[in-house]
């Protein structure tokens, strides 16, 4: 039923946004209305705090899953632009746009595309490299496995990897938890993670060119003080520094993990690294002996 209702829209979120804009056009009347269209909203750049966020929506779920060592595969096109925009940017733009429409009324409804792709672009492949570096620099507490994995550019290969690297280990861990009298949770965690991945796949395998001319023009109309106070210019944003803050913010604000525990988390992450390497060597030996037994 959902597919029939939303038509060619990628999900219900995009569909309801379109419904909202349609309602503004038909029912707005003479009200001073302006539309802000942010792209993929992520953690804060500067306000209220660098890296601040409060949910697992969008790429944050990927950061959280990879940081805990649970997420090992993502369907994505590395060469596509990841049109991320920190949450404080559309908020500041909305304030400036409200001033503009109130002081300079317009019969048409102005639309401002709040995006980074045409101003300060970052590609999904760059995000993969920067993100993994930041996750290993600022590890989460009690990681399930050493953070790793990669993007997959084939939906079929990604599906196979989801089964072998996510679902099967989750069933194994929950079986062990059940046998030890503990509550099994990993299957539910993986199912939620896959659902979140599905929601972002459409945006991680496509890209769009958005016009931001009126955003830049609005920025030039502000005084220097207002530009600093209500900053929505992304040209000065350093993506490596921002990704560091994004990972620390996920750790601190989503998982409620104190940054004072970083050294302890690093020691645990290092231990998981060596456990992973020992297991890989063991598997290499086992498969080598099996190959020798079968074919030699």
Any overview of this molecule?
By secondary structure, the chain is mainly α. The protein is 57% helix and 7% strand. It has 11 helices and 6 strands. The chain has helices spanning 2-6, 12-27, 59-67, 88-103, 124-137, 155-179, 186-204, 213-221, 224-229, 239-254, 262-295, and strands at 35-38, 40-42, 73-75, 84-86, 111-114, 150-152. Helix 3 (59-67) packs across helix 7 and helix 6 (155-179) runs antiparallel to helix 7.
Brief account:
This protein is mainly alpha-helical. It contains 11 helices and 6 strands. The strands form 3 sheets. It has a two-stranded parallel sheet with strand order 1-5.
Main traits of this protein?
two-stranded parallel ribbon, about 55% helix, elongated, mainly alpha, about 300 residues
The biggest sheet amounts to: 2 strands, parallel
Q: Largest beta sheet: what is the strand line-up? A: 1-5
Mean pLDDT: 91
Helix content: 55-70%
String of helices and strands: HHEEHEEHEHEHHHHHH
Stretches where pLDDT is under 50 for at least 5 consecutive residues are none
Structural class: mainly alpha
Query: What spatial form do the alpha-carbon principal axes imply?
Result: elongated
In terms of DSSP E residues, the strand content is 5-15%
Q: Give the tally of β-strands.
A: 6
**What is the rounded Rg?**
23 Å
Terminal Cα separation, in Å? 57 Å
How is the secondary structure organized here?
Elements: H1 2-6, H2 12-27, E1 35-38, E2 40-42, H3 59-67, E3 73-75, E4 84-86, H4 88-103, E5 111-114, H5 124-137, E6 150-152, H6 155-179, H7 186-204, H8 213-221, H9 224-229, H10 239-254, H11 262-295
Parallel strand pairs: 1-5, 2-4, 3-6
């Amino acid at each position: 039923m959902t597919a029939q209702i939303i038509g060619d829209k990628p999900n219900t979120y995009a569909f309801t946004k379109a419904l909202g804009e349609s309602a503004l056009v038909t029912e707005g009347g003479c009200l001073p209305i302006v539309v802000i269209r942010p792209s993929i909203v992520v953690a804060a750049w500067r306000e209220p705090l660098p890296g601040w966020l409060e949910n697992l929506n969008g790429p944050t779920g990927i950061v959280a899953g990879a940081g805990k060592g649970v997420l090992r595969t993502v369907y994505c096109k590395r060469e596509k632009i990841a049109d991320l925009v920190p949450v404080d940017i559309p908020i500041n733009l909305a304030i400036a746009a409200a001033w503009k429409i109130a002081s300079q009324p317009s019969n048409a409804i102005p639309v401002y595309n709040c995006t980074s792709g045409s101003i300060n672009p970052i590609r999904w492949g760059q995000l993969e490299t920067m993100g993994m570096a930041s996750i290993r620099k600022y590890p989460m507490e009690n990681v399930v496995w050493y953070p790793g994995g990669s993007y997959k550019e084939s939906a079929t290969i990604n599906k196979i990897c989801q089964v072998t690297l996510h679902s099967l280990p989750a069933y194994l861990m929950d079986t062990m938890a059940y046998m030890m009298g503990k509550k099994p949770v990993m299957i539910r965690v993986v199912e939620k993670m896959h659902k979140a991945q599905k929601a972002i796949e459409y945006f991680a395998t496509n890209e769009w060119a958005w016009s931001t001319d009126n955003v830049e023009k609005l920025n030039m109309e502000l005084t220097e003080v207002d530009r600093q106070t209500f900053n929505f210019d992304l040209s000065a944003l350093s993506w490596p520094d921002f990704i560091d803050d994004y990972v620390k913010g996920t750790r601190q604000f989503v998982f409620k993990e104190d940054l004072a525990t970083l050294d302890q988390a690093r020691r645990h992450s290092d231990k998981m690294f060596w456990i992973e390497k020992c297991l890989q060597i063991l598997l290499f030996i086992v498969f080598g002996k099996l190959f020798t037994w079968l074919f030699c």
